[in-house]
Design goal:
The complex is a heterodimer of chains A (about 1050) and B (about 575). With about 1050 residues, chain A is an alpha/beta fold. Chain A is built from 44 helices and 22 strands. The chains are: A alpha/beta (about 1050), B alpha+beta (about 575).
Chain lengths: ~1050, ~575
């Protein structure tokens, strides 16, 4: 502990995890604390221990003692500053906070005096600063009120656990309180304790705290007045400064060191107990697991697969050794529940490397057949819980699975992990702009432009970004706005709920981490996010929602209902020729994981012929293989233009499958194991060292170990370099093979359904938007090019979702009312319901039967032609007739007159002219974001042909290198981080999609055109190689197609 | 033909550009300077062709290059509009002030003065051109048709009688809507958009119906139209058929009265000036009274004799300022604004108030012209409240306040109001207005003021007792603030002040309490950061009464890096 007389320890600090009451991260505190050579520090966030894991980890790295505590609200409005002395104290604090949070509304609440009395053990209470119990008592009366309050604290916490706190922020009122506090301490013989009531690390962060104060109190800086700080003194002060500040009361400083030494608890001592699966009598966790695995193994592998049996045995032995059977049983139980309820479920990630998981039905990929590396999933050395992620259909089905876990393990046994919502570019800009009193339109403008300074373009200064975003940096308010936005980046804003992460515990989760209610009724979340839970060694299961799972599930349902066929995803015909033909042509719009521009550019080259090719396809178009320059060598070898060569003969078994090119993380691990003699755990450690949380020192150590291992095996220095390079460049972004395989299964399933059940697949895909790479407009056009008949939205026939209708030999797709922009779901559902009871015979009839419908909703329906057949006539009325009718229907005449027929009996016909085709197209795009009629480019085609513009279909027939002119609607813009500033555009016309490549120079020159224009005309050189067609742009011009407003997915 | 409508397209831009006519041929964008983003609110055709769009920011326009960027100027707009009205009034006494960018004249009976209607129209067009304004002019027998045509068609449009419907029929329906609402139809501006918010629904409906011209709108059956668009639809239908007839609404300077007097000999003395002022006030008050109104405020402007000496009054003067030369006024103008607590129409009271103000800040040079302007409002009508204290007559109160102000200065009279700020000098003087302050609010204000002062005093007392800072005495005293605060020189040792000198006074610090630190308003140019010290000082300089001791509040201004003495404790 050192010399206590000199060592001031800050024991009262709030971080930004006090949500708008602190202005720096716990890590900043820890770093500064280490810089000041302060041996310890305490973090007391408001009503929670939200920041404690991060503080704990950061402090532990710096060899500091991280003390835990919290400021807990009382019914009177003041807060108990509580410090944790022992594990009992920590458990009491967590339970106290949980009680308070679960009782109150979200974010509100306070602890009752009797609750504090019951759970005071193991806690130290300070008398607090201006929000503490003493200040409150002194504010309501004279000094005797203060004495009574402190005596009460002594009775609750014990005399030895109460410290009279002094803070000095150069404030008269505070100093007068201090004088009273000293008097009380002397009278009651209690120790004094100096703290600084810290709210931020550096004085400059006071400005951010002021902004947060405004946000908390719903004011602007101009109107916040004395809500704001009086000065900037609540920063983390160095011990010397605090000693000087309390030079008249040296014991107050000394006591900080003494109290710090009494606070024995840290989060290392959390006391988390692993959950146990509820068992039938006579069974142990392990025996029960063995039985379930045994059953599953026979079902999956049959009874004579020796290789599988050995692998399963090996895994079970390790699971037993690590005492993890309960975890596997819990996950198995969730999967079993999903199967019973016919909810699609599939394990993803490294769990697919485990034969036990495969046998239990958790994953769908056979790791034995695919020779996947188990150590990537679980190893003895790692000392971490395994991580199993389950993909479920997004939406209600996933919710059912989550509710099941709650029911099974109880309120205090399971909870969702939190998701700390932080201030990001747009949210920060909007809120800070508001606080600086920017007008509404300025705020709108800024929040749309602020993305412009997110892209880390090297060589551009902050000022440049700001100017590019249309802001004047010379203006003080703008300058402050930018500074504050940067300061606020990544600061916690509030606690949300993680989309799928669940933690489970042995019924006492509230003693491990405080729980609080989530927005969703009946659901609780822990105060830590997923990463923090993992860091603190709490086991978790991710129940993730996957749009494609929902699509597949919906598609199967539609096929069952409309086609009368039953599809089982686990038993789809393998090696379906139609699937591979589509993949080889890159005809993959809407297919899972293989539909992006980059994937499409690779498919014709790869020419997939078997399932493993899809696994490679999914895994290769990733930053890892791209940055590691693995893509081209693999292709050359695949196409026979280069002989497969392994880095070293000993690595052949590992790399042979991928033609000598490492593509997956498992290969990297195996390379280390074979070439350098690493154990499975060591190899996994290597992957982590080179992974996301990189540490130079750790990487260096591992590299030395790697080289030493390779030298021992007699691998030459040159080969060593190659292997090290392959590993280092790849590890950061690599994809696990098991994960790629799990995704490849879904990719195959989606391709199979698209090829064989196009109508059902398209309907399911459209019903689960937004998801995937393309806008619905593109999906619709693609389906039409594949021969699907699509019927427009019609209130007399459409459901809320897209449905199928019998059409000639097969099915046509009827667009659902959900695609009518601005039509509320409840109104859409009412329309469907009413129409089923009795068809509408006029617009008035519809309006009268659905009185809540708004005029704007009727207008959209009229504009897109959804009311054309409402009059019951076969030929229908035209859209303008409907528009004419809705105006009358929307203007309610009152109960006396509204049922009267219209004068002049012109109920069906109007004096208005029908829409021209171009007008209809415009109305379609405005009302639905797409058209099922001609593509906008089709209207321009005759003129474009005269100008020498080629269609997307033409390009395949042209020679590589020829000069071409193309035009189309921009459906995607991409500027990937790995592409050195190149921008990729996908242009759509009536015949298909063309890719255009924009060089960084051209992008800079024509920034506005490339980024803002919806239709482009591009001159350039055609690149037509191996069936992959793209145009390298030389000139870009806007194409005036004013009548359609198309949307694009932009990633730049 | 008896009505001529003059419309100025892109009025906001033209108002700024008219002083530099050559610029109009360039691509120009007008930005709103008051908004931090400086969005484009108006642009000309050339700029639109270059791809500039309304609402993009100034910085974005700069990226285009070669675009002239101008700032919106409301004074320029006012002047341009006034000039347009003057032009109209120079032709006809019957002028309608339809919109900022649109006026209408009645030409009836002017033939004998100016010749044919065509002559008059050309005269107007030339006159507008001389003013630097490009206009669209239309003449018709029907006032609404004239307005609509001027907004819809470029150049000069003369609509022969009986052909209104045919010609108006070609006008876009947007012109009809904007014309009916009396706001500008321009491709540009956000202000227009908000002003016509009610019309957007209608415009949207017509767009959906495919109705783009007045003719197609006029062709719709009126009865069914009324069922859909209500009476507003019927009105518009009438306008589109050129069937709406209304009378011209003559413009008159409502509620604003002006009187002026040019003097043959410059007046330098207050007495003759007050006599002349009295005469003017008599005239003005009788005019105001004739319309059963009273003056809500008086603006006095005195044109001063040009002087070779540097005696011109500058903007730094407490209650007078030179006018903005940009508004076309002469710089040698002395200006005084008298805001009244209640509307008054008694010329004698008004004269007394003006004279008192002039006595406290007299014009620096002899006066050659007197200009008086008054905003007239409804006279005060009030009935006494049985339960409220009788207030003195507001005229008397105002006179008393003005007398005090002439003695101590305007800024030092009124009711103090505490500001919600940590800033040490956080209060402001408000106008003393006994009528509008209700008893309750008086009590609240007093309580909060007293409460805050008492709290501060309590804290101060305790802080001063702090043994750590050396002051042992019980201090229950008031702080007497020095205004202005004298600068001081302070010697610091070990972080504490030990010696101080200010205003010829020199002393040794025998006890110090502080620093009490405050900083704030960091988001404005007027940020502050101050350290306050309460010092007990023993004088070391010889004073008449020998050695003196006192407690002072001394401040260090961190921004200015200087010390000053804030006040002394009684």
């Amino acid at each position: 502990m050192g010399d206590l007389r000199l060592s001031y320890v800050e024991l009262h600090a709030r971080s930004a995890f006090s949500f708008l009451e602190g202005a720096c991260t716990p890590e900043e505190f820890a770093n500064l604390c280490a810089h000041y050579q302060m041996p310890a520090m305490a973090l007391l966030d408001r009503n929670g221990v939200y920041g404690s894991p991060r503080f704990h980890l950061a402090a532990r790295k710096l060899s500091l003692s991280p003390h835990i505590g919290a400021e807990v609200a009382s019914p009177q409005g003041w807060r108990y500053p509580l410090l944790v002395k022992s594990r009992t104290g920590y458990q009491n604090l967590c339970r106290l906070i949980t009680q308070m949070k679960l009782r109150g509304k979200k974010g509100d609440g306070y602890v009752l005096d009797e609750e504090v009395a019951q759970k005071a053990s193991g806690l130290v209470c300070l008398t607090g600063g201006d929000e503490g119990p003493l200040a409150y008592a002194l504010g309501t009366g004279e000094i005797h009120a203060g004495i009574e309050q402190v005596e009460l604290l002594c009775r609750v916490f014990g005399r030895e656990n109460v410290y009279v706190e002094l803070q000095r922020h150069f404030n008269r009122e505070e100093e007068s309180r201090n004088q009273a506090a000293i008097e009380i301490a002397r009278k009651l013989r209690l120790p004094l304790l100096a703290t600084n009531g810290v709210c931020y690390a550096r004085p400059g962060q006071r400005q951010l705290l002021d902004v947060f104060t405004c946000l908390r109190n719903h004011r602007t800086l101009a109107t916040a007045g004395r809500f704001l700080s009086q000065n900037s003194e609540r920063y983390l002060k160095p011990p010397a400064e605090m000693t000087r500040l309390f030079s008249d009361l040296p014991e107050a400083v000394e006591n900080t060191g003494i109290l710090s030494s009494r606070l024995e608890f840290t989060l290392n001592d959390l006391g988390y107990r692993f959950p146990k699966y509820p068992l039938p009598s006579g069974e142990t966790q392990m025996s029960f697991l063995r039985r379930r695995v045994g059953e599953g193994m026979i079902a999956r592998y049959g009874s004579h697969n020796e290789k599988a049996r050995k692998q399963v045995e090996r895994e079970l032995a390790l699971i037993e050794k690590l005492d993890l059977p309960g975890y596997f049983l819990i996950v198995w139980d969730i999967v079993r529940f999903c199967r019973e309820k016919q909810i699609l479920v599939q394990g993803r990630g490294s769990a697919a490397n485990s034969a036990v998981c495969y046998s239990l039905g958790i994953t769908a990929v056979d790791p034995v057949a695919m020779d996947l590396l188990f150590e990537r999933f679980l190893s003895e050395q790692r000392g971490e819980w395994p991580d199993i992620d389950l993909d479920l259909p997004s939406g209600a089905q996933r919710e059912r699975a989550i509710q099941y876990v709650y029911e099974r393990y109880g309120k205090l046994g399971a909870a969702m992990t939190a998701n700390v919502i932080t201030y990001r570019g747009r949210s920060a800009a909007r809120e800070i702009g508001k606080v600086l009193s920017f007008q509404a339109e300025v705020l709108d403008r800024i929040s749309t432009l602020v993305g412009a300074w997110q892209y880390p373009d090297p060589g551009q200064t902050l000022e440049g970004h700001v100017r590019e975003a249309g802001l004047d940096y010379q203006n003080l308010q703008i300058r402050k706005f930018v500074e504050l936005c940067l300061m606020a980046q990544d600061m916690p804003r509030h606690l949300g709920q993680h989309s799928g992460g669940m933690v489970v515990c042995q019924g006492e989760l509230d003693s491990i981490v405080p729980l609080q209610p989530a927005t969703m009724p009946g659901r609780v979340v822990v105060q830590w996010d997923k990463e923090d839970c993992a860091d603190m060694g709490i086991v978790k299961v991710d129940l993730l929602g996957l749009g494609m799972m929902a699509t597949l599930e919906d598609c199967i349902e539609i096929i069952r209902e409309d086609y009368g066929e039953k599809i089982d995803l686990a038993h789809l015909p393998p090696n379906d020729p139609m699937v591979y033909a589509a993949l080889q042509k890159a005809d993959t719009v809407g297919m899972f994981q293989i539909e992006s521009r980059a994937q499409m550019a690779f498919l014709p080259r790869l020419q997939p012929r078997c399932f493993y090719d899809i696994v490679v396809q999914v895994g290769i178009i990733r930053p890892g293989p791209i940055v590691g320059k693995m893509v081209h060598p693999y292709l050359k070898r695949r196409q026979g233009r280069e002989l497969p060569q392994c880095l070293h003969p000993s690595l052949e078994p590992v790399l042979a499958r991928t033609l000598g090119v490492p593509l997956f993380q498992e290969q990297l691990l195996r390379m280390a194991m074979i070439a350098a003699g690493f154990s499975g755990g060591e190899a996994e450690e290597l992957r982590r060292a080179f992974g996301f949380k990189r540490s130079e020192l750790r990487m260096k150590d591992i590299e030395i170990k790697l080289r030493a291992g390779m030298a021992k095996k007699g691998i030459e220095a040159e080969t060593q370099d190659k292997i090290v390079k392959a590993i280092t460049s790849f590890a950061l972004y690599g994809f696990p093979e098991s994960h790629a395989a799990s995704f490849a299964l879904l990719a195959y399933a989606s391709a199979f359904l698209k090829c064989h059940y196009l109508a059902a697949f398209t309907a399911a895909l459209l019903n689960n938007q937004p998801m995937g790479f393309y806008q619905p407009a593109t999906l619709v056009k693609d389906a039409q090019r594949h021969g699907l008949k699509i019927h427009p939205i019609d209130v007399m026939r459409s459901d809320w979702l897209c449905t199928l209708e019998k059409y000639k030999p097969g099915f046509a797709l009827r667009m659902g009312l959900r695609y009518a922009k601005g039509l509320r779901q409840e109104i859409g559902l009412q329309i469907v319901q009413e129409c089923r009871i009795r068809p509408f015979f006029s617009v008035e009839d519809l309006q009268l039967r659905i009185p809540a419908i708004q005029k704007s909703e009727l207008a959209v329906l009229a504009d897109i032609g959804a009311l054309n057949f409402i009059a019951g006539r076969e030929a229908g009325i035209h859209r303008r007739d409907a528009s004419w009718q809705i105006e009358r229907a929307a203007r309610r005449a009152g109960p006396l007159l509204e049922r009267l027929p219209e004068q002049n009996s012109a109920r069906e016909n109007s004096p208005l002219a029908p829409m021209r085709p171009e007008e209809r197209l415009l109305a379609d795009f405005r009302g639905t974001g797409m058209t099922i009629g001609l593509h906008p480019m089709a209207y321009k085609r005759p003129q474009l042909r005269k100008e020498g513009v080629r269609s997307a279909a033409d390009l395949h027939r042209l020679r590589n290198g020829s000069a071409v002119r193309i035009a189309g609607a921009v459906i995607a813009r991409q500027r990937p981080g790995t592409a050195k500033g190149f921008v990729f555009l996908s242009l759509e016309d009536e015949t298909g999609i063309t890719n255009a490549i924009i060089t960084p120079q051209l992008f800079e020159e024509d920034y506005a055109t490339v980024v803002q224009q919806q239709f482009l005309l591009i001159d350039g050189k055609l690149q037509n190689q191996e069936g992959v067609v793209s145009v390298k742009a030389e000139h870009v011009r806007p194409l005036p197609v004013a009548f359609a407003e198309m949307a694009s997915h932009d990633f730049y | 033909m008896s009505f001529v409508s003059i419309f100025v397209p892109d009025f906001m831009l033209q108002a700024v550009v008219r002083s530099a006519p050559g610029m109009w041929n360039r691509a120009l964008a007008l930005v709103e300077p008051a908004s931090p983003l400086r969005p484009v609110i108006c642009l000309n055709q050339q700029a639109a062709t270059r791809g500039i769009k309304p609402a993009i920011t100034k910085s974005e326009v700069e990226q285009f290059g070669g675009i002239g960027i101008l700032q919106r100027s409301r004074p320029q707009e006012r002047i341009a509009h006034a000039a347009l009205l003057d032009l109209a009034w120079s032709i006809s006494p019957r002028v309608e002030d339809t919109a900022p960018d649109n006026i209408v004249l009645d030409l009836a009976g002017l033939a004998s003065l100016f010749g044919s209607d065509e002559n008059i129209i050309h005269r107007l067009a030339e006159g507008a051109k001389r003013l630097g304004l490009e206009t669209q002019i239309a003449a018709a027998c029907n006032i609404e048709a004239a307005i609509l045509a001027s907004r819809a068609f470029p150049g000069i449009t003369v609509i022969p009688e009986g052909e209104e419907a045919a010609i108006i029929g070609k006008a876009p329906v947007t012109a009809l809507l904007f014309s009916a609402a009396g706001v500008s139809v321009s491709r540009q501006n956000g202000e227009t958009a908000s002003a016509v918010h009610d019309l957007t629904d209608l415009l949207e409906t017509l767009k959906r119906w495919g109705v783009h011209t007045c003719a197609s709108f006029a062709a719709l059956p009126v009865l069914e139209l009324s069922e859909r668009l209500g009476q507003e639809g019927v009105r518009l239908h009438k306008l589109a058929r050129a069937g709406a007839v209304r009378a011209l609404i003559p413009a008159q300077p409502a509620g604003h009265f002006e009187e002026e007097m040019e003097l043959e000999d410059a007046v330098a003395e207050m007495e003759p000036l007050s006599i002349l002022l009295g005469q003017l006030l008599e005239r003005m008050c009788s005019r105001i009274a004739a319309r059963s109104l009273a003056a809500g405020g008086i603006d006095l402007r005195l044109q001063l004799q040009p002087s070779f000496e540097d005696g011109r009054i500058t903007a730094g003067h407490p209650c007078a300022q030179t006018t903005d030369p940009g508004e076309g006024e002469a710089a040698d103008i002395f200006q005084l604004a008298l805001r009244l607590p209640a509307p008054m129409s008694d010329p004698r009271t008004l004269l007394k108030l003006l004279v008192l103000r002039l006595q406290s800040a007299p014009p620096p040079s002899p006066v050659v012209k007197i200009m008086l302007a008054a905003d007239a409002v409804r006279p005060r009508t009030s009935q006494g409240d049985l339960f409220s204290a009788i207030c003195p007559d507001p005229e008397k109160v105002e006179l008393t306040v003005s007398r005090l102000a002439s003695l101590v200065g305007d800024a030092n009279v009124g009711s103090p109001e505490l500001l919600d700020t940590h800033r040490p000098e956080g209060f402001r003087m408000c106008r003393f207005d006994p009528i509008s302050v209700s008893r309750d609010s008086c009590r609240t204000a007093r309580n909060s003021l007293v409460g805050r002062i008492q709290r501060e005093q309590r804290a101060q007392g305790r802080a001063l007792r702090s043994p750590s800072h050396g002051l042992e005495k019980e201090v229950q005293s008031a702080l007497r603030v020095f205004r202005p605060a004298p600068a001081a020189r302070v010697e610091i040792r070990n972080g504490y002040p030990v010696q101080i000198a200010f205003s010829g006074f020199r002393g040794r610090v025998i006890a110090a309490s502080g620093p009490w630190r405050s900083s704030g308003d960091w988001w404005t140019e007027d940020s502050y950061a101050k350290d306050e010290w309460d010092l007990e000082i023993q004088s070391t300089s010889k004073t008449r009464s020998g050695k003196q001791q006192g407690v002072y509040r001394v401040c260090y201004d961190c921004a200015k890096k200087g010390w000053y003495v804030w006040g002394t404790f009684d």
